Automatic annotation (TrEMBL):
It comes from the Bacteria. This is Coenzyme A pyrophosphatase. It comes from Kocuria turfanensis. Residues 45-209 form the Nudix hydrolase domain. SUPFAM superfamilies: Nudix (SSF55811). Pfam families: NUDIX. Keywords: Hydrolase, Magnesium, Manganese, Metal-binding. CDD domains: NUDIX_CoAse_Nudt7. InterPro entries: CoAse (IPR045121), NUDIX_hydrolase-like_dom_sf (IPR015797), NUDIX_hydrolase_dom (IPR000086). The lineage of its organism: Bacteria, Bacillati, Actinomycetota, Actinomycetes, Micrococcales. Its cofactor is Mn(2+); Mg(2+). Gene3D superfamilies: Nucleoside Triphosphate Pyrophosphohydrolase (3.90.79.10).
Length: 259
């Protein structure tokens, strides 16, 4: 029985196949093909890091958005964290779980086999380790499908490898260290693709304005709303588009980023 069949339902099974397709072509997925968003450049002393883009079957907290799409949008969510407002780097921003590679993660050039091909084992180990440290998830329940092309993150001088995962055996998650994160939450895909929740977020530095795709989404189980923008907003936009799950939205809607 496949991982998709384990969680049941045709739409979820189709979603797994979509994710596997993107994982297999992940290194062709580019992050800066439509709009400028990066401020600055990384230098030769950059650090390697990895983030976990983890999709799974929707939990018992449903989407608050109307049913704009049939199929996958109703049945999936993605794991996100909100960084603590006291952090020096990206304070208060919403992100995927992840962080720097540590020596214990091994040689980043050594490859391991996953369903989507061969990927850096060190990046996989870093993404899972950091996700466990930040959210408390059990990494044994995560099936790593593949990895996307590394993405420069100049503001912190990191080269980030997004690791694409399927939450085959879901475990409870919550904030582990409040000095690092203020929220750990799962966002229904339907809320992410809802056109009412989409806009561009902008940051102006001198005479230059940078913009990124953004998602204003409710936090399940609370009355709160957060904005996903910047690096994470770009990743979400590209991945949802590559999966074929995105729906048209008003690209003329532009709002200042919540700095």
């Amino acid at each position: 029985m496949s991982a998709a069949e384990d969680v049941g339902g045709a739409p979820v099974g189709h979603a797994y196949q979509d994710l596997l397709r993107v994982a297999r072509s992940g290194h062709s997925l580019r992050m800066e093909d439509r709009e400028p968003w990066r401020i600055g450049r990384i230098d030769e002393n950059y650090r390697r890091s990895a983030v976990l883009i983890l999709f799974g079957a929707l939990d018992d907290l449903p989407s608050r958005s109307p049913a704009h799409a049939e199929g996958v949008g109703r049945d999936l969510d993605v794991l996100l964290v909100q960084r603590a407002a006291t952090l020096r780097s990206h304070p208060g921003q919403v992100a995927f779980p992840g962080g720097r590679l540590d020596p214990e993660d091994g040689d980043p050039h050594e490859l391991v086999s996953v369903p989507g091909g061969r990927v850096s084992g060190a990046h996989v180990r870093a993404a899972l380790r950091e996700a466990e440290e930040e959210t408390g998830l059990d990494p044994r329940g995560v099936e790593v499908l593949g990895a996307l092309a590394p993405v420069p993150l100049p503001v912190s001088n990191h080269l980030v490898t997004p690791v694409l995962g399927w939450w085959q055996d879901v475990s409870p998650v919550d904030v582990v260290d409040h000095a690092e994160s203020s929220l750990v939450f799962r966002v229904p895909v339907l809320d992410l693709i809802d056109p009412a929740n989409r806009h561009y977020a902008t940051v102006t530095r001198g005479r230059q304005t940078y913009r990124s795709p953004a998602f204003a989404v409710p936090v399940a189980g609370t009355d709160s709303q957060v904005t996903v923008w910047g690096f994470t907003g770009v990743l979400l936009d590209r991945v949802l588009t590559a999966l074929g799950w995105a729906v048209p939205w008003d690209t003329g809607r532009v709002l200042p980023a919540p700095l």
